[in-house]
Write a structure and sequence with these properties.
By secondary structure, the protein is mainly α. The protein is 86% helix and 0% strand. The protein has one domain (6-70). Helix 2 runs antiparallel to helix 3 (48-70).
Length: 71
């Protein structure tokens, strides 16, 4: 796995996300909630700082869920 090309690494990462989407109900629920949060934020239009904070939080939650699924 170490000396794979970048496109192959991206395909593997997307395959893992697809697997989590297909197999993990919690991951699907969290992605739906992310869409709702982004929808609310697009209506409320907070400052850029709050956008950055929510994107960071969302990324951490989804990354933790993917790590949990991998284990």
């Amino acid at each position: 796995m170490k000396n794979q090309s970048f496109p192959k690494k991206v395909r593997n990462a997307l395959s893992g996300i697809g697997f989590a989407w297909a197999e993990e109900q919690n991951f699907r629920a969290q992605v739906v909630l992310v869409a709702v949060v982004f929808g609310v934020f697009s209506i409320v239009r907070p400052a850029a700082f709050w956008w950055a904070l929510i994107v960071l939080c969302v990324a951490l939650v989804l990354a933790a869920e993917l790590a949990n699924s991998a284990i």
